[in-house]
Amino acid sequence: MLIHLLVSLCIGALCGFAANKIMNGSSKGFLRNALLGIVGGLVGGFIGNLIGIGDGWISSVILAIGGSCLVVWLVRKLGK
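User: That's the sequence. What structure does it adopt?
Assistant: Structure tokens below.
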């Protein structure tokens, strides 16, 4: 259980980095990207569960990156 949580947090952090690159963001620090990625992973997982996808690792990573992009976009819009 603890290993699964740590792996999920690491994947979320990497997805935050990927989302920052996809969204052409300037790197505002690893911690910010990691936190946005973790929150984005939760958002992507929630949306995936709502529409019925996300059973495998690949789809989970894709959903996490998509959720992270959504969170990065929202943070940019609300930050202005």
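The chain is about 80% helix and 0% strand.
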